[in-house]
Structures are given as structure tokens and as C-alpha cells.
TrEMBL record:
Pfam families: Na_Ca_ex (PF01699). Residues 1-16, 29-71 have a biased composition (Low complexity). It is a multi-pass membrane protein. The chain crosses the membrane at residues 110-131, 137-156, 168-191, 203-229, 241-260, 280-298, 330-351, 400-424, 436-453, 460-480. Gene3D superfamilies: NCX, central ion-binding region. Belongs to the Ca(2+):cation antiporter (CaCA) (TC 2.A.19) family. One of its GO terms (biological process) is intracellular calcium ion homeostasis. GO terms for cellular component: endomembrane system; fungal-type vacuole membrane. This is Vacuolar calcium ion transporter. Residues 137-300, 337-477 form the Sodium/calcium exchanger membrane region domain. Has a role in promoting intracellular calcium ion sequestration via the exchange of calcium ions for hydrogen ions across the vacuolar membrane. Involved also in manganese ion homeostasis via its uptake into the vacuole.
Amino acid sequence: MSSPTVPTTTNPDPTTIQQLPVPSPPPTSNNTNGNTTAQLEKPLPATTSPSTGSLSLPFHNNPTPVLTPPRRTLSAWATDILTVRPTGESGRRGFNPKSFSKIILRSSNLASRVVNVLWPVVPVAIAIRYALPEQQLAIFILHYLAMVPCANLLGFAGQELARKVPHVMGVLTETTLGSLVEIIMFIVLILRNDDEVDYIQVIKAAILGSILATMLLCLGLCFVVGGLVRQESTFSEAVSEAGSGLLLTAGFGLAIPTVFTHSLSGRLAEGDLERKALDISRSTALLLLIAYLVFVYFQSQTHHGIYDAIFVEEELRDDDRHEEMRMHRLTFTEVCVALILSIGLVTLIAINLVDKIHFLVAERHVSDAFVGLIMLPLVEKAAEHLTAIDEAYDNQMNFALSHVLGATLQTALFNGPLVVIVGWGLGKNMGLDFEIFDLAVLILAILTVGNFLRDQKSNYLEGVLCVIVYVAIAVAALYYPNPEHGGSDHGGASAPTEEPH
């Protein structure tokens, strides 16, 4: 069998090609020698993306085009803030007590509605605090339970406000309002002085405990809930990569004062080492605050288009989207009332709760580490945890991951450094030099979670493993001894306080 003859193409003069008209559509023609000429195609012009306005090359020159959104001007940003999204429209104006109560009690999901059953505990806790002040254990338990519905109300009001603003700004707003409970608790703690309890140590443990509770317990439960409904949940690389990278950076920043303190212990005079460690902690706190501001600017200004696209697509994946669209919304006035009410209740309950930590540590012999590392973070982050778990159940893993990583980063980069700066202004020796045990479990947790996020997939096995790791840390914290002196850390030098433990 003879092989087919391959036709040859005569190379024409380049000047002749330039003068040839470009046919459209390009036909295939034969020349006088019987040879088939190459098909001429009209080059595609550069196009402008309708969503971003950026110029992109033709597809054959740019097979994987990258759409870079333009920077937003201040006026455009302000316009977006003042424009209510359709999903946040309530169809009402002003304040209606009946509608307000119904919407608050109905809340946004089943878990929040279950939590609202605890609302009768709130007035009972406040009444017993002043009527039976000697019942200290009952006061602590009741206030601990009462904090949950109040934090849930604060989180729900944040959700309602987030639905009225652009997607990225909504996530940031909701995360910030959810962290108000933690900020209030830290401020109340740092204003306390006690002979029996080292409140500085409780704050340090609470900072790391909040990160661990959100990163291990909440994320693990999100993976478990998502894995029970579907075989595998997926999420965006943009969300996971930015979050895990910032987590590692935050862990590195928090580790610097601790590594410095323990590396030079015994080589410098104790007072000199404590003073230098405190200066390093304050400098690190300022740097972490700058890192958080850059992260917020990155999400809300220069790269908002990437996250907007992800969150818009995520809303379409919501399994309960049709039910949520039929739900009644709070008006802007009602949102403000809910925020004021919840912040006031959270502050009052936090003050009464912190007052009883002394009894819990001195009389019930619960360690500072367990109170700060486990007990306080669970009640501080209750609302955010419920929101993220509900989103994971509804197949909105990007939203859930944004809340988990956003809350974790806010604690590490903003809330923790903020309390150091506040302590600096109040003359308190609040630093970021942690115990080696606390820091070691934090770094290991960051590495573990980062490894789970690498493939942009999750299942219930990964979630169960995260929860098991958190329970193991809780057991170790329960048996961790209190420091012998109020100014010492659990095992290393730290910034001193005035009262001995």
C-alpha cells in the first residue's frame, strides 16, 4: 500500500501576503499549481471583560487568562456600602417590636433556634447575681449559659447587617461583630487585679484557646457536618491558600516573644529579660495589627472581585436558598437595636462571669490554663461556630471556611495584639510570651489544618481528626498546673504582675 502524497506549499513573497485581503469566513482555496494553501484566519481582537473592565488578550495568545479586577475608588466603595443588596431587603421601615421579636426568636438556622431556648436563663442569671451573691458556683454556671444566647443574638444581628452590604464587606463585618464578645471579655479581664488569679495568664491562654477552638473544633465540626450530608465538600483555593498562609504568619509572629524569652532564660538578668520580652511583645503586636489591616485592604479593595465571584457562586449553591429568600429580614433600625441590646447584655454578663473566675480557680481548683484555653473560648465563639456549621451543612463551605479562618485571623492578628496595646496604655505588663506547651500545640494545629486545606476538599474523617486533637488538648489543659507566681508563665519567664499567685 503506497503512502499518500503530502502536498507542498509554495512560500510566497512576504510583501504579497501583506497585500492579500483577509477573507471572512476564511475559505480554503487551491493555487494554480494544485497545492493547497494554508487557511488564513482573522486574528481575534483584544477584548474587555464586562465584569472587571480589564483588558485581556485573545484566547489563542492567552490560554489561561487572569482577570485582574480594577482598584475600587472611595466613592464606589461608599456607594456599595450604602446600597442594600436584594437578599437584605426587609420591605419594611423603622422598628416593629412584634416583627423584631419573631425574627430574633426564629433566627437564621435550626442550631440558633435551639440556642434561643436559653433566653430565660439570662434574667435568672442577672437576678441571682444580685439576690443570692453567695451562690457563686450557680452564678458562674448561669452566666456561662446566658452568654450563649446573647452572643448568638450578636452574631445574628451581624448576619442581618452582612446581608445588606457587599459580599466581602459582609463577611468582614459579620466576623468583626462576632469577635466583639471576645474583645469585651479581654478588656474586662485585663482590668481585673486579684491575689489568687493571674488574669494576664488567663488572657494569654484565652488568645490561643480561641484560635484553637475555631481552627480545630469549629472547622472539624464543619467538615463532619458537610461529610455527613455529602461524600466530599470542596472549597476555593483563593480562600484556603490566603487563610492558611496568614495563619502560619500569625503563628510565627506570636512565637517570636516566646522563643526569645525561653532562648535567653538564664543568660540575662530576670528583670532585663522581662523588660526586653515586653518590648518585643508590644512591637510584635503593632506589626500584627498592620498585617491585619493589609489583609482587610487586600480582601475589600484590591482583590475584592475574586472573593465577590466566589461568594456569589456560593450563594447559588446554598441548599436552603429558597427558604432563606422567603424569610423576613430585620430593618436597618432593628439591626441597630439588636446590636445595642446584645452588646449591652454581653458586657454585663462578661463582667459577672469574670468576677467568678476567682472562685473557680481558688475554690474549685480549676487551672488557669483550662479556664483560658477551653472554657472562655467556647462561650466567646459560640455564635460564629453555629453560623459556620450551618453554612457547611448547606453546602456553603467557602462561606464556612471564610468565617472560620476570618475569626481565627482576627483573634491572632487583631484581638490579641489589641489587648496588648490596651494593656500598654493601662500600665499592665501584658505580653505575647506564652508557655511552650500552648505555643507548641498552636503551631502543630496550624500545620495540621494547613495540610487538610491543601487539596481544597474535605470529608468527615478530617473533621473527626480535628475534633479529636482539640479534645486531647483540652484534657492536657485540665491537668496543667497553675503558675507558682502571678507574674510567671506556666513554665518560663514572662512579664511580671504586681500580685503573687
